[in-house]
Amino acid sequence: xxxxxxxxxxxxxxxxxxxxxxxxxxxxxxxxxxxxxxxxxxxxxxxxxxxxxxxxxxxxxxxxxxxxxxxxxxxxxxxxxxxxxxxxxxxxxxxxxxxxxxxxxxxxxxxxxxxxxxxxxxxxxxxxxxxxxxxxxxxxxxxxxxxxxxxxxxxxxxxxxxxxxxxxxxxxxxxxxxxxxxxxxxxxxxxxxxxxxxxxxxxxxxxxxxxxxxxxxxxxxxxxxxxxxx
Length: 230
Description:
Elements: E1 2-8, E2 11-23, E3 26-35, H1 44-47, H2 49-59, E4 68-76, E5 87-96, H3 102-110, E6 115-123, H4 127-153, E7 155-172, E8 197-198, E9 201-202, E10 211-226
Organism: Corallococcus terminator
Pfam families: SIMPL
Protein name: SIMPL domain-containing protein
């Protein structure tokens, strides 16, 4: 934790900052599946052969059926007619709660000619809770620091004048830990049957990690009250 303090026009200004790390506890994989038949809703998971193949393959890896959500379906019509035999493109979202299994899931995608990974979105379920804890910690340290500054200046610490906070994020590459990262907002990636899977790693063309660094900053301004002796 770094800190800085100063005074201006009777105001004691304290600036504190701290670095923290967050590790993703889930990841959403957005997958495009090209199928030979058109279905809507849950029927796609039972009747679209290519979608069924994908779901069953991932179920064998421990991904539950409840992890799959159909985000959209686009029919490819022939001669302007829409029928069940029309080919379609399904966009699926797959929630992976066991992030350590992501390598196996990506490897499964690479063996399916009709499936292409389009996006990875990392999730941090307890991020808001952690951010609040970090901010409260900085606020408490700000008061302690301001009291020390006031004592050194020979004044009393008055009430709070202003408080502000700011956070910055950067993503980390978790080397040697089997991590993957496409950023919190995801990143467009492509992995189809041509992908390489060697020694538990999938070659996507860029490093992947699922940890991020959060830099938290807080600025607190307090009023300085002169003592009777001063």
